[in-house]
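Example with several molecule types.
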Amino acid sequence: MPSLALTSLWVLAVFSPVLLLTAESAAETLRNPELLALALPTGRRLGLLVNSLGLSAAVSLSAVVVGLLAGSVLWEWDAGPWSRLRWLLLALVPVPPYIHALSWMTALDWLGVSTAGWAPTFLVEFMAYLPLGLGLSLIGYMGVDASMVEAARLHRPDGDVFTRVVVPLVAPALVAAGGLVFAFTVTDYSVPTLFSVNVYSLEVFSDFSASNQAARSMMLSVPILLATMLALWASQSSLRSVVQSDASNRPAPRLSYPAWLGSLRLIGLGVACAQALVLAVTLVSASGGPGSVVYAVSSAHGDIGFTLFQAAATAALCVPLAFVAADHMRRGSGPWWLMAVAPLAVPSPLVGISVLRLAGASGLLYGSWAAPVLGTVVRFTPVASLAALAQLKRLDPLLLDAADLFGGTLGRAWFRVRLPLQAPGLAAAAALVFAFTMGEMGATLLTVPPGVSTVTIRVFNYLHYGGSDVVAGLCLVMVAAMAAAGLIGLTAFSLRRDSGGRSE
Amino acid sequence: MVYTSVDQVFSEPVFRRFEEATGIKVKAVYDVEAAKTTGLVNRLIAEKARPLCDVWWSGEIAQTILLKEEGVLAPYRSPSAEDIPPQYVDPDWHWVGFGGRARVLLVNTELVDPGDVPDSLFNLASTGVPAEKVGIAYPMFGTAATQAAALYAFLGPEEARALFTDLRDAGVRVVDGNSVVRDLVAGGQLAMGMTDTDDAIGAIERGAPVEMVFLDQGPDDMGTLIIPNTVGMIAGAAHPDEAKVLLDYLLSEEVEAQLVDSGWLQMPLRPVPVEQPYFDASSVKGMTVSWVDVYTHIEQAKKDMAEIFVR
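Resulting structure tokens for the full complex:
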């Protein structure tokens, strides 16, 4: 069990800023009770909420289904150069959806397809979050005990084995991916507005822009908060209910799929490849060549330096916090789960405002490089916690309990047993946080000290100016850095597959 | 320490020249359009008790008046502002306007016949161009919101609301900002759309088949909105002396000329030795409206615009 001190550190770091804002909002609501009505959308707002929930559900479902299909192909690429190259498809996990959207707008223009309405909005949100669905799906596949699959093959045709054995074993990771994709989609307004589609999160921002009152925005955010927490709760309930152990070092089984399923798997892989190709091709063509990329890098070297610092510091801080959170979640009472994932649903500017308020009130971190790091720690510790948990669930709980009982001191048990066992999950968590932090803007813009900026802020600044070559060049730099971080972390999973669980 | 909503590509060179001229180091935070006006203004309000910033430089005016009302700005009478017309100066010297950009209709000349180009906001969607090929930016954010509030102040809330409701009912496409309007018109996905002069000129300079049209320019028409840049000193600034030096510099004719030359400003508020080549600024008829009235209407206008367009 995590110590009280570590748990307190987790609560303090991740929740104190948001709790302060929540307390201020509650006090404002007590003074002005009609604010409560904002939490219950009616009429136009209810329509927007329904639209947002529908879009988010469709996007998350699609990302899960295609992740499942494409992941089943990548699962088999476990030898030779393909075993590494398959991770490249996942390197785009954290590219901001807005950049995906701009790339797809270009592609749709080439194809003469309309760039307005729900269809392109769905397509782009789906493509933007597909790498996340695919990544978690692949992690789920890699946790499947091949010996169980081989045993099932003795009794049933391969198609049945896939649908009745493999899919249920992968399901927890898939459902977790669905929950995360839902959370990110329902809080995103940037892609829908680009395609002239109105969603509930735009209403929240619009109201914040008009009123400048955080309390109103918090109240308006309640339905999104509840919907996100419900989605994550449902997904995590499923994740808790299936415990697997990656006990086998055997390669992934080569199943003989029926024709219809084989076709669907290839279609899924094709879609996954398309999302990566469209982004890569449009960015490379828009960048105007190596000279433009060099110019983009040289003009933004300070921003690149701070971005790397922020991403590395956030990852370094999130990992131990995720270590604590994941352990609470593994043992799992409801409130721990809700607490661990709730920050995902808080709009990013409100996270920034809450960090400012806390830093200003306490005098700590105020105006320093640490303030934006705290903002991204608040935002992305839940992501790290879920990634760490996905790996933790593959470990034999008896091994963990034995370490706690017989490992000597708490520190000795953790450093000698738990950390080595959980290292792959924590590495993946660090890579995900690193990459998501590089693409963060809403909270960072409100907390970054004067004289300092990030690559993403510069990208959005140039987007307004219209410097598409510089934007593309900077995006390629981000993709490269993210790919490097992602490859390091996610490869740790494949390199350390045999580090956890029972030995044979 | 400066917070600015002016594009980094335009404001950063100004800061660098200031540093060279004075030796005072400028540390800036740059706002982005994608933050939907929830960025630096909210940050300044949140930091009011312990300001990190010394100088605020905005690309528009309504948010600056909001900062004055919130007690974020301190008065400073800059000698550089003595020749700026009084309607662009706060009576209490909490802010000063300089230079300006105008709201303009950007028209794709390959898609729109000259006879179909509207001459007024009131017939924006009623010419031969299909309404779904006409774009406006979400009028809850940025200069599009300022224009909506100005129309509320000039026409009255009822008439202004009716104007926007008519645009919505006609099927005009609402997009994610002035730069998106510019890009869609330049790319041909839209035939024409409302944006700012700096955005429009950017498209022209990149060779897009577009032209600018100023609306409501007839003798009895209301004119187009000209939105000044504004600057102000932060109350409780940690570096007030340096802030005053920077404010004097930003309000100088030299900087106004530099910004006209770089393409950020097109409508200087006083004679400057540089002219932009795209139109005769002196011939553009501006909307006569009180900025305080604009600010007074902006919250209601934003709420109404959300009611009308976000559904």
